[in-house]
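Observation: inputs received (chain + fe (ii) ion).
Thought: call the complex predictor directly.
Action: predict_structure
Action Input:
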Amino acid sequence: MPDEPSSASGASRAAGGSCPDTGPGTGAASILFVGDLVGSIGRRTLLECLPLLRERYDPTFVVVNAENVAGGLGITPKGARALFAGGVDAITLGNHAYHRREIYPYLDEEPRILRPVNFLRIQPGHGTCVVERDGLRLGVVNLSGNLYLRAGRHAFTEIETALGELGEVDHILVDMHAEATSEKVALGWMLDGRVTAVVGTHTHIPTADARVLPGGTAYITDVGMTGPRGGVIGVKREQAIESLQTQMPVRFETSEDDPWLMGVLISCSATPRSAAAIEQVLMPRPQAPPRAIPSLPDR
Ligand SMILES: [Fe+2]
Ligand SMILES: [Fe+2]
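Observation:
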């Protein structure tokens, strides 16, 4: 588990890059990518943190992984619409993409929600999209690892097809949803210099290796999750511990304890498809203002 941020503001800066004239707040494009939203608490945490993050970083694009937003598993059309209404530009998913059947037609209809591009072609949905803001075009690719995860086609070959299908874009963000760190690191190196960022998701635990690779691609092995830090990767901790202690089936529920937003801010370079900096954004859900205590009537 990451320690609490050292800065008084609640957000921590874990890694930066060169090119100070293209950093946040200077008018250059930037991408806020937020890791797996877990449950309604994850959605609320995102939507309550977003105004503060917009004020602080003014991101051009906001992309979130929301494969766990429907009660911890999957996503519904209603949940996706709530995120788009809150200002999210694109949604990525992962191995839980198909947990809720009602999302299947929506995955075909809505261009801005992605399931991994290397799933089988017969499965609902698509794995790439292009979103546009401020005259800039961002290509987004969702990819699944093949180690310990079920993806019908190979990530390292299908990414080539996906990049070719994006067409003319200014920047490209790849969400590599994978269990194995080796696959994510290898993909980062393979795409270095060809895409703006490769960000890892799925483990729900943020890694401390955010950096801009030598060719100009921002990289992190795992962004972490947005949801209850007081649970076990989203589940109530007492249930996860009981399951591991007894080796018996236990009904899992989403924890609501200690919600945090975990993401990264990628500052794009003026050079197409390259990044100037990447920094981690780790932030607790804003505290609700204290309720006024009604005064007792005078007697
Ligand atoms: Fe996952
Ligand atoms: Fe997840």
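Thought: report the result.
Final Answer: Confidence is low (pLDDT under 50) at residues 1-27. The radius of gyration is 19 Å.
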